[in-house]
Design brief:
The complex is a heterodimer of chains A (about 300) and B (about 400). In chain A, helix 2 (about 55-70) packs across helix 5 (about 115-125). In chain A, strand 9 (about 285-290) and strand 10 form a beta hairpin. In chain A, about 55% of the residues are buried. Chain A has a 10-stranded mixed sheet, sandwiched between helices. The longest helix of chain A is centred in the N-terminal third of the chain and has 15 residues, at about 55-70. The two termini of chain A are about 15 Å apart. Chain A is globular and about 65 Å long. Helices cover about 30% and strands about 25% of the residues of chain A. Chain A folds into 2 domains: about 5-195, 3-Layer(aba) Sandwich (Peroxisomal Thiolase, Chain A, domain 1), CATH 3.40.47.10; about 205-300, Peroxisomal Thiolase, Chain A, domain 1, CATH 3.40.47.10. By secondary structure, chain A is of the alpha/beta class. Chain B has helices spanning about 20-25, 50-60, 65-80, 100-115, 130-140, 155-170, 185-195, 225-230, 260-270, 290-305, 315-320, 325-340, and strands at about 5-10, 35, 45, 90-95, 145-150, 175-180, 215, 215-225, 235-245, 280-285, 310, 340, 365, 370-380, 380-390. In chain B, helix 3 (about 65-80) packs parallel to helix 5 and helix 6 (about 155-170) packs across helix 12. The two termini of chain B are about 15 Å apart. Chain B has 2 domains: about 5-230, Thiolase/Chalcone synthase (Peroxisomal Thiolase, Chain A, domain 1, 3-Layer(aba) Sandwich), CATH 3.40.47.10; about 245-390, Thiolase/Chalcone synthase (Peroxisomal Thiolase, Chain A, domain 1), CATH 3.40.47. The longest helix of chain B is centred in the middle third of the chain and has 15 residues, at about 155-170. Chain B contains 12 helices and 15 strands. A 10-stranded mixed sheet of chain B has the order 5-4-6-8-1-9-15-14-10-11, with helices on both faces. In chain B, strands 2-3-7 form a 3-stranded mixed sheet, with no helix packed on it. In chain B, strands 12-13 form a two-stranded antiparallel ribbon. In chain B, strand 10, helix 10 (about 290-305) and strand 11 form a beta-alpha-beta unit. Chain B is α/β, with parallel strands linked by helices. The chains are: A alpha/beta (about 300), B alpha/beta (about 400). Chains A and B meet through helix 3, helix 5, strand 3 and helix 6 of A and helix 4, helix 5, strand 5, helix 6 and helix 7 of B.
């Protein structure tokens, strides 16, 4: 399932947009951080910009930059989002719950569906290809990535994969009753272009696997590495979220201290892996264990 | 690699199982009527006359989550009945939904806005991903779970994703389809778009004004030949083609010339290796909105020229069940092949002037149906086509 990463762009609570190497700008987030947004006017026409919620702005801009970095139009687009366009969803709930007259403004409803993100990208890029939206809680990015890798395997030449999620204030109400994490809610979008594996020097996604009834993370990792015929000693860096066993990888870094909490942040870890200076023959393993029984494993070389 | 259908399941306003759907389709009995709930009573809708508790009791469900999840469990359980879990058959669930657990969130959120009180624990049902995880739990499947959310093409895309996972060798057998409960959120949304018809919807009719909404779930089980050797399942049809393409025209409207739909129909036929004359019936998306039906008609004409096969929309039976539509209509397509029926496009009187296309007006028994093409088009210009065929 190997594919080469040819572009990767993140808009996040880090100053990650347009950076050569995002490790240079990383700072652990405090409780009050915000999205460090680029000047969206450069990427989104004013009429759309006024209507678009933060998640749409972030995703569209990141996708647009990925497209700008290649001369070929994408021949598939797959996006993962755990909670979708939350701001417009809440706005439309408020619209119809408090409505007094017979007419309702449709804008928030139109922009509330999960696939508004991928749909808006297809429209902005004038792209008629395969267009998919995956939403699988904490494994939303991984399922979109698996789709993208499948597209490459099927012969597609320039595949866009992305993840985007946005925080709204209401989410804080859910803590600690529904969501136990102590990490503050944040927003983020990461998009990457994948191409068939060539001899280039860039990073490659080797494989991605998801587990829905994970009871033994260590065993799952061992099986995953074995399937890819990789020795555990070849893992130079483990990027993780949630609790993981300490036995694998020379170095382990919790990426949630940089991303904050959103359930497709493994995509940002992918960006970290892409920018990491790996020794020859070594790998980065992303272990997404944000939610107890769910496990996402992504291997990057 | 051939992909076989080995199970089907359905629930909607015209039936609680596949057999009841078949009877309604051949006797031309629509399930659309005046809504039964405060948010639906002003409209003609396809509601399932069972409460959540009644669904749990009648179908002996283990899970108790959102209505979207419950409906999904009912249809997926029927599709998967007779199938056994086995270590050496890698099995997954891929389900489409547009609203997920909104049926629960909207009640809690209203209470929060109006009285400042709500049951916070109930929001854990909100996420769309949960409805699929509940279906997987109900069936005892934990190998792979994936939720597709592309509005009204969600189920068709789930079927496509499942087929691709099997073809790539990642899975052997997948329960694929879609589910959506009819929520106040959805009704208000379509009301804001002003695309409801206050009368019964009339797909492909010159006088069509808009859609009637519905709720339900439709699932099919697909397997590779090797999986069937191990499972011993009996194949009932083949899944031959699939495609998704982007219209890239407008967030809610389809392009007037049906460009994206033309792409998805032609590409699905290419995947299936079929020519236009191999298609014996089209189960159209046919929502009965002025925009969709004209755009879809043009796409069909682009591909089939003046040899358009018999076609109909079954939305006037079930209402538009959104993310479930492609799943239910896959089941109807399989029934058409199994029993040799073209299903009625109810309420049709006059062809659209611009196209002159006349759908199948009443349910008709025919000698043989080899291949059925089924369209599902969603917001965001998301166009999908699947093709089911005889064995």
């Amino acid at each position: 399932m190997t594919a080469a990463i040819t572009s990767i762009v993140s808009i996040s609570h880090q100053d990650s947009f347009g950076k050569q190497n995002i490790w240079e700008i990383l700072t652990p987030l405090g409780n009050q951080s915000e999205v460090i947004a680029p000047d969206y006017k450069t990427y989104i026409p004013p009429a759309s910009l006024r209507r678009f919620s933060p998640v749409l702005r972030m995703a569209l801009t990141a996708a647009q930059v990925c497209q700008n970095e290649t001369s070929v139009p994408f021949d598939s687009i797959s996006v993962g989002t755990s909670l979708g366009c939350l701001k417009d969803t809440e706005r439309f709930l408020q619209t119809f719950i408090t409505a007094t007259g017979d007419t309702l403004s449709p804008t928030a409803f139109i922009q509330s569906t999960h696939n508004t993100i991928a749909g808006a990208i297809s429209m902005a890029l004038g792209n008629h290809s395969y267009n998919m939206t995956h939403t699988q809680n904490s494994l939303s990015f991984e399922t979109a990535l698996i789709d993208g890798l499948l597209c490459v395997q099927e012969g597609k030449k320039n595949v866009l994969v992305g993840a985007a999620d946005e925080a709204i204030e209401f989410l804080d109400v859910l803590k600690p009753h529904v969501i136990q994490s102590t990490v503050p809610f944040t927003s983020g979008a990461t998009f990457l272009s994948l191409q068939p594996d060539t001899a280039g020097n860039g990073k490659k996604v080797i494989d991605c696997a998801v587990h829905f009834n994970n009871t033994n993370t260590e065993e799952a990792i061992t099986t995953f590495l074995k399937k890819n015929q990789i020795d555990a000693n070849a893992i130079e860096l483990v990027l993780f979220a949630g609790e993981i066993p300490t036995t694998i990888g020379i170095k382990q870094i919790n990426y949630e201290q940089y991303t904050g909490l959103y359930y497709s942040s493994a995509a940002f870890a992918c960006h970290l892996a892409n920018d990491y200076a790996l020794a020859e023959g070594k790998y980065v393993l992303i272990v997404n264990h944000q939610v107890n029984s769910k496990l996402g494993l992504t291997l990057i070389k | 690699m051939d992909i076989f259908v080995t199970g089907i399941g359905a629930i909607s306003c015209i039936g609680n199982n596949v057999q009841e759907h078949f009877e309604a389709l051949i006797t031309e009995r629509s399930g659309i009527k005046k809504g039964m709930h405060p948010h639906s009573e002003r409209f003609l809708v396809g509601e399932i006359p069972l409460t959540n508790q009644e669904l749990i009791d009648r179908f002996q469900l283990k899970v108790n989550g959102s209505r979207t999840g419950l409906l999904g469990c009912v249809a997926a359980k029927e599709a998967f009945s007779g199938h056994l879990l086995s270590e050496d058959i890698r099995t997954g669930v891929i389900s489409g939904t547009s609203v997920g657990g909104m049926d629960i969130s909207e009640i809690q959120y209203r209470s929060y806005l109006e009285n400042g009180t709500h049951d916070i624990s109930r929001y854990k049902e909100h996420s769309s991903g949960n409805s699929s995880e509940e279906i997987a739990l109900e069936l005892g499947i934990d190998g792979f779970v994936n939720t597709i959310s592309t509005a009204c093409s969600s189920a068709a895309n789930s079927i496509m994703m499942g087929a691709r996972m099997i073809r790539s060798g990642a899975l052997d057998r997948v329960v694929v389809g879609g589910t959506d409960a009819l929520t106040e959120f959805t009704i208000s949304g379509f009301r804001s778009l002003m695309i409801f018809d206050e009368e019964w919807c009339r797909p492909f009719d010159e006088s069509r004004k808009g859609l009637n909404l519905g709720e339900g779930a439709g699932f099919i089980v697909i397997e590779s030949a090797t999986s069937i050797e191990k499972s011993g399942s009996t194949p009932i049809a083949q899944l031959k083609g699939w495609s998704n393409a982007s219209d890239a025209y407008h967030q809610t409207a389809s392009s007037p010339d049906g460009y994206g739909a033309t792409l998805s129909i032609s590409e699905a036929m290419k995947v299936a290796g079929l020519k236009p004359e191999d298609i014996d019936y089209i189960n159209a998306h046919g929502t009965a909105t002025p925009n969709n039906d004209l755009s879809e008609s043009k796409a069909i004409m682009h591909v089939f020229g003046d040899q358009v096969p018999p076609f109909s929309s079954t939305k006037a039976f079930t209402g538009h069940t959104l993310a479930a539509a492609g799943g239910l209509e896959a089941v109807f397509s399989i029934l058409a092949i199994q029993h040799g029926y073209l299903f009625a496009n109810l309420n049709h009187r006059h062809a659209i002037e611009e196209t002159k296309l006349v759908p199948v007006k009443s349910t008709t028994k025919v000698k043989n149906i080899r291949n059925v093409l089924s369209n599902s088009f969603g917001f965001g210009g998301n166009n999908s086509t699947i093709i089911l065929g005889e064995l």
